[in-house]
Amino acid sequence: MTPFRPWQNLLRIVLILAAATLSACAGVDMSGTCGLEEHYTLPLDMMLGGRAPVLWVRVNGIDRHFLLDTGGSSSAIERRTALALGLLHDTKSVSMRDVTGTQNFDTIEIERVETGGLVFENKRFLVSNGLPYDGVIGLDLLSDLTLDINELEGRIVAYHGRLCAGQKPIADAKLIEMPAIRGVKGAGGKPSPHLEVAARLNGTLGLAMFDTGAIGGSLVSPVFAAKAGVTPEILASDPEVHPRGFGAVTTAHLHRFDQLDLDGEIFPKPVLMISSDKGMAFNIIIGADYFHIHRVWLDFANDRVFTLPLEQRPSPGS
Fold first, then answer.
1. pTM > 0.70
2. Which run of H or E residues covers position 141?
């Protein structure tokens, strides 16, 4: 199965979601200084058949494998890993929603986590259970960085600082710039750390979020899929798949849509998963099937996303 098919055209769509405001605000330097500062090449170990951006991470001096997860609000450590490292103490319980619904999690504080020269001290991590790696590095640790993600070449670079107004990460005619918004409100009315961009699915306008942790592929909310014309009868005839989140395995359906327009990049006849979670916070989650064929920059400071289509490689089932 290849969820995205080769694109035919690059046609920029008009951003209905306050485009003028976004264009004016993108790249505004509120601190008086700008420019990407010290960078860190993160030690990438592409696990799971090359389908997941898994980093070498040192936890209290011991090397472990953690997934880079730009869709996860919180970082996590696997229960078995926490047990092995003697970290299960001072636990506190929190409630969190992912693609499997709302779950309760223990949390623990970890004294020191480091990867590629980045150091995080005295941070609280969720305790997950059943993931195929030792933990997850989420947006609570990433959202003050600019990330350059190139899974095809096996390279991820993190930068301190922010791009200057009008600055692009590279000079390439194929580079696509996507103004983004923080479209989901968290507890207390705070903006979500996730960057969302305009997308049309079967002509229906919505928002899409980029998630390196969605290793099973891209996912559509059932509410948005219904707006895009997927009836319950159609959905019932689509094959089932079983993606996994932090909390558990859930059920989704594979559906072939007519077209996905991701802020101007056209994908005809894409095969995407439709979630069973009616409370899913995002219209579309863009996952591993996209990252395998694009270089992606996530500029959290300026709310901008840049992508560069890359030479495609074969995918299982293609």
1. yes
2. helix 139-142
